[in-house]
Amino acid sequence: MAAHRWFFMIDETNKEIGRRIQNLRKSAGLSEDRLAELLEIPVSFLGFTEDGKCNPPIKILMGISNILNVSLDYIAFEENE
After folding, report:
1. Nearest to 45 by CA among 12, 37, 29, 54
2. What is the pLDDT of residues 40-64, one digit of tens each?
3. I want to staple 52 with a disulfide (CB 3.0 to 4.6 A). Which of 18, 32, 70, 73 is the partner?
């Protein structure tokens, strides 16, 4: 049962991070295609990330952070520096 709760937390965390990335991307006026191009990743991977269906590597999160001009803390925890 405890393992099940852990997986639920990971799933919810991925969804929250994905929503933040999507909101930031839209606020920056970028399409999924354009952000994926800047990150040099498939647009489908970015879509899965924004939908919370995958856990993106730190390298991708760092790229998103740099392009959207926000801290990794904000992306991960919605906390400012």
Report:
1. 54
2. 999 999 999 999 998 899 999 999 9
3. 18
